[in-house]
Amino acid sequence: MQDFEYLMPTNLDQAIGLLKKYENKAALIAGGTDVMVKIGKTRKAPDVLISLRRLSALRYIKKNGGYHIGALTTHRMLEQSTLVQSELSALHDAASQVGSVQIRNVGTLGGNICNAAPSADTAGPLLVLDATAVLEGPLGRRRVPLKEFFTGTYRTVRKPDEVLVEMEIPEDLGRYGSAYWKHTRRKAMELPLIGIAVALKLSQDNSQILDSRIALTVAAPTPIRAYPAEDFLKGKVIADDVLKEAGRIASSADCCTIRTSLRCEAWYREEIVRVFVPRMAKLAAERVKNR
Amino acid sequence: MSDYLYVGKDIPRTIEADKVCGRAIYINDLKRPGMLHGKILYSRYAHARIKRIDTSKAKKLQGVRAVLTGYDLPDVRVGFIKDQTVLKKDVVRQFRDEVAAVAAISLEIAEEALHLIDVDYEELPAVFDPREAMKEGAPLVHEVDARGKPVRSNILPLPWKFQAGDPEKGRRESAYVVKDDVRTTWVNQGCMGTSGCIAEFDMNKNLTLYSQTNVPFLGKQRIQEYLSRLGLGKSNVRVLNPVVGGSFGTKLDTDIYEFIAIQLALQTGKPVKILFTREEEFFALPPRQPALFNIEQGCDREGNLTFREVKAILDNGAYTSWGATTPSVMMMPISSLYRVPNVRFDATCVYTNNIYAQAMRGYGNPQATFAVETSMDRLAEEAGIDPAELRLINCNRPGEETPMRLKITTCPLEACIKTVREKIRWGEKRGKRNGRGVGMASLIHVAGGARVYKSDGHGIIVKVDQNGRVDVLESGTDQGQGSPTVISQMVAEALGFKPDDVSITLGDTSLCLWDAGTHASRHTFMAGNAAIQACRSIKRQILEMAVEFIPQIVTYAIKKKKQKDPNFREPDLDWKLVASPEAMDIKDRYIFPQKAPDHPYFRTEVSEILTRGLHVGTGQSRVVIAEAFYDPPTEMLDREMKGNYSMTYAFGTTAVEVEVDKETGEIKIVQVFAAHDVGRAMNPTLVKGQIYGAAYTGAGYGLTEEIQVRNGRVMNANFRDYKMLTAKDVIPVEPIIIEVPDESGPFGAKGIGEPGLVPTAPAIANAVYDAVGVRISDLPITPEKILSALRKKDVC
Question: What global pTM score does this model have?
Fold first, then answer.
């Protein structure tokens, strides 16, 4: 049956205490845009749902010694933040395209990351922004780089008694620009057919790529970084043929394991990676120049 | 400009404020005392033998009041050609086959009970491609026909064969001939409200069915027949509409779930509600009929069409609903869109183990027009003629009779084509092949009823009370199109009252007269014509009373004034001004002499007269009521499938500009101009609403919408994976209303419910070709198809 107990702790300690108490009988719920859909679909619910809704202390976007985004921050808050828009552009691109306004009003960043869908919109941008997940459990806090966070489809390193507290992004983004492309068939209420996030660090004259990070969603069982394509770009002078080659590498089996699904065939997904890695790289570069 | 006070005006839809405020009572909201909830168990196979059904566990679940299977019900067949039973036994033929049904005290318990029903199946070979199904030796979907006679083929005994002129001769005389294969697919009507009903019997086995149907009277007839076959021939049936959240064709047939609710209500003696989930709405409700076309047409050196020949294969699915009759409408654009003297059209409906199809906005017309209009562009290219020019050369004209014997009355098609051509700056934009392109397509559709049943009639009852409030008992239905507003405008206009005076009651078989159904874009046309007739009688009744009472009122008033003011001089009144009904008129609730509209003594508010007519103090009191039944003098299709089945036809042309991303195949619609012949717009805002909505749905049909059916199973039964366009996918549609009032229409109106959808997809396809030089004749036009075609083209 779909009956469950619904608990609403008001602080982090209470939440962790409840997780410890109910162990594997409990699950966390934040915005509920994934959890409730899953319960409805499978007609199965955990015995206890522990809601993080009242943990308003975890709803924040701060910049001090790096960027700190609380796990309970909604997509709508990210969308409406000028700081996110100007300095963490890829994350802004992603957050503002999740579902619809109603969904963005409740869906949270932490929920999107912990649900760990291969299509998670914010995962790609956070990967290219080199984010670190901060988890807290009965044994205290620990920090896990996001690139090591996902262990499989809908699986992460988070232990059952841990709560994701915030995402940390290193401060030094001065010469970086980032962009995210969500490839869809319409403009709202969509999951990406494929997602492409790119962050570039350019030289002072904007001609040379000093650092590059490329992340892909729906291109593997988890959101991934396309390291060979990143390595190819590092140190290169930015030019059409260079970016095109990066797109080719990113779409190849060296970087991803793209599959055919009902939503889209593999060849077309590969094509979109090939086309949009260069397009997003150009947009990211453009954003460096405009900062 | 007309001197109408209310028709033609943008009267807001305030009648429906309850919908906006969440007060309207949809089937979801409706509860009856003691009501149970019904759920349906569907097949797990596309084709299988039922070896065993065990319902014992489900029956034992607390709160369950009935569990039914096909083995519990008499063998009564239902449907258009009676090829299915309500619950299926022995064999299932599609995934949506209803195998068992449960009624319980709550929805949750009913759902739980479904999981406790055990069904053992033995899978049978199935067939999913209609072309395969036509072949000899293909698995038979039905082994016997409705009469129990063995059948040898999956082809339906429903041949559609039409011929006019001599297509072979036409072909010989052609300078240019083109041929194409075209495919259209299943699409869901996407109603905001999901399907549902409540069936309730009283102790005498009289049935009230709260149903969303658009055909309350035909529905009642079908249910009455069904009950007779169950041995309940004495039952009376009342069909009532709650507020309906969209139809778009879904509510033209009486659906199986309605019969199931009736059976559960009979079994339990309680009202039973069945309400579909969104998933059921996608897999258990018949979508738009898919079709495969082979189209060939030609023209002479001057571009005059010489012949058109179309063969269609329709995947009928496992049973037959109205999808199988869509060729009756396909025939209209195939024979009559543009002037083509020699036409042949054959359509074959074939049983498969897929889901079966029904009606959707346009009813066969969008499918056929996609074939005809993409072929027109191909022909234009072959002949070296501008596609707009080719259409103008062959443009339909007022007063002509088409090869199907449709009698064209008003026809501003030429104006439609020229208007959109100019608006989109055709000459300047066409033929660039630079990733941006323009395309157009036109349409013809019934706009004055459609005689698909032997009665295309429509009844109305109008009554006016002593306060001058008007009640209209209207036999059509409102599924959200705004009919109540338009009807109140037309009634107010015809009576000389105000739209606010008019209350409309719709969708009740006990209160209203027969209507063939709110389909075929016919409601405004039919209701308006009936209303004008009824209102003429009402007006006469009121004016006859006025002849009697105005002199009394005026004489009494003068007497009073004299008493108050001895110096008052009695005016010299011309009593002839109010001596006969013909001498007077009513406007804006005032009765007045035609020769002196502002007459200081004779101008009288209607309620004064109406009150006097009722409260007379003798045995002579009167009520004001009139009924009218309008059945247009149209023809059924004859044996050759010819006949003028509508009083008038609507035309229109849509021009689209697209931008195609050659690297991704993505299409952006830059602008859409949709010029439509509406006769006279009764309410321009509502007309535009119909055009916007239809053009949007047409764009979805062209670009994104497709029910993905794999081996008979619907794979994308939700709005996440079924890509209906959203409010964010703004398509800049500019509706253009072309007004040439039609004599047969009420105040000159033609129907406009469906037309906007019809030419959208082919106009997009033609624009894509203009932009990047690839023709996609397989809907929807996905980026994948464009990219594949572009690559093939590059290789060649």
Answer: 0.97
